[in-house]
Amino acid sequence: MKKQVLALAISAILLAACGKKEEPVAAPAAPAPVAAAPAAPAAPAGPVYDDEKVLNIYNWPDYVPEGMIAAFEKESGIKVNYDTFETNEALHAKLVAGNTGYDIVVPGTVFAKGQIEGGLLQPLKKDQIPNLANMDPAIMATLTKADPENKHLVPWAWGFTTVGINKTKVEKALGGMAMPENAWDLVFKPEYTSKLKSCGIAYLDSPTEIIPVALHYIGKDAYSNDPADYKAAGEMLAKVRKDVRLFSSTMIDDIAGGKACVAIGWSGDVNIAAARATENGSKDVIEAMLPSTGALIFFDTMAVTKDAKHPNNAAAFIDFYLRPENAALMSNEMGYPTGNKAGVAQVKPEIASNKTIFVEADYFAKMIPPSSFTNEAREAMGNTYNAFKKGK
Ligand code: N2P
């Protein structure tokens, strides 16, 4: 019951936010026509495979439970080549260049909207993916902002960009200074960064990860297209540049291993870092924060490239991934919420009750819903970010 309420809240909040930001896509805040979209046509007798039993997947690092790919290979006889990329920018550049060689890619919806519009992704073979029926209609409704008819995208996972800390080390480095009310202060306010640089501050290495949270921190729209806002974000960032030790989009081991005590990172990765530190015998407390002003939600979605050579194998894998037990495994092992309603029921109680994984409705209301970036905005973000990183 509680989960149902949360799903409704997610849908209402995201759809309401859709209505107030940037160009409207189809009918804003109108869930009715899309709610039924994920329902798949009657299932075929069994999976359909391509003649060549190969599947090439391109996904984010630290996102697939151990053994899941091998289980699919064993069951299907398909050889999976699984590569990883670290930023939406890197995936986008590959897609734009074409001939990626990949069948399934996993863009964030902030980039996927433009990729669909640009013809870089092909519609899903929904009749070969009966497990689409397991998806939460509220989550699928939120995706219509990027994919108006739920034709191209299905969530791998979702989560949020936030501040991750090694609380033990941060408290020590702050000396007697109290923790700020707003956790973003730890990475953006010189009063704190000047102290925390001694134990290591790490930022994700991507303009479209850092600039939106910086904009949000200074009270601007995280998805602003206004050059004046980028300028202001750049000025704020310049003040903390000298205190940032690392730029990395795979910082799990940096946090777990002690190179960084505070990071702008992804919720699940911070949870993985916490688990890894414990496995390594550390007693330090590592936590994903829920900043008082909110964190930035992302949805990472499976999609099939326009020139995929193995589109049937891709559909078979997507259907396999959408089995409730596999969706639950992803949440249990990778620390990200699944958009798979049938899977949520199988998530371990300690994961389901972790408020930094399955966020409560109260906090969800504070979060910044995903939008999308225009080409101009991405370019402006790139310029602001590069100048920041170079320390200019
Ligand atoms: C990697 C998770 C990627 C989340 N572990 C950001 N899209």
Number of strands: 10
Q: What value does the Rg take, in angstroms?
A: 20 Å
The helix/strand class is alpha/beta
Shape: globular
Question: Which CATH architecture of the largest domain?
Answer: 3-Layer(aba) Sandwich
Count of separate structural domains: 2
Per CATH, what is the topology of the largest domain?
D-Maltodextrin-Binding Protein, domain 2
Family: Belongs to the bacterial solute-binding protein PotD/PotF family.
InterPro entries: SBP, Sperm_putr-bd
Function: Required for the activity of the bacterial periplasmic transport system of putrescine.
GO biological process, one term: polyamine transport
Can you describe this structure in just a few lines?
Required for the activity of the bacterial periplasmic transport system of putrescine. Keywords: Periplasm, Signal, Transport. The chain has 19 helices and ten strands.
Notes on the structure:
With about 400 residues, the chain is of the alpha/beta class. The chain has 2 domains: about 1-160 and about 300-365, Periplasmic binding protein-like II (D-Maltodextrin-Binding Protein, domain 2, 3-Layer(aba) Sandwich), CATH 3.40.190; about 160-295 and about 375-390, 3-Layer(aba) Sandwich (D-Maltodextrin-Binding Protein, domain 2), CATH 3.40.190. Helices cover about 45% and strands about 15% of the residues. The protein is built from 19 helices and 10 strands. Strands 1, 2, 3, 4, 5, 6, 7, 8, 9 and 10 form a 10-stranded mixed beta sheet that branches. Helix 1 runs parallel beside helix 6 (about 135-145) and helix 11 runs parallel beside helix 19. The radius of gyration is 20 Å and the shape is globular. The N and C termini lie far apart (about 50 Å). The relative contact order is 0.19. Mean pLDDT is about 90; it is low at about 1-10 and about 10-35. The structure holds pentane-1,5-diamine. Pentane-1,5-diamine binds next to strand 10. It comes from Hydrogenophaga aromaticivorans. This is Putrescine-binding periplasmic protein. Belongs to the bacterial solute-binding protein PotD/PotF family. One of its GO terms (biological process) is polyamine transport. GO terms for molecular function: polyamine binding.
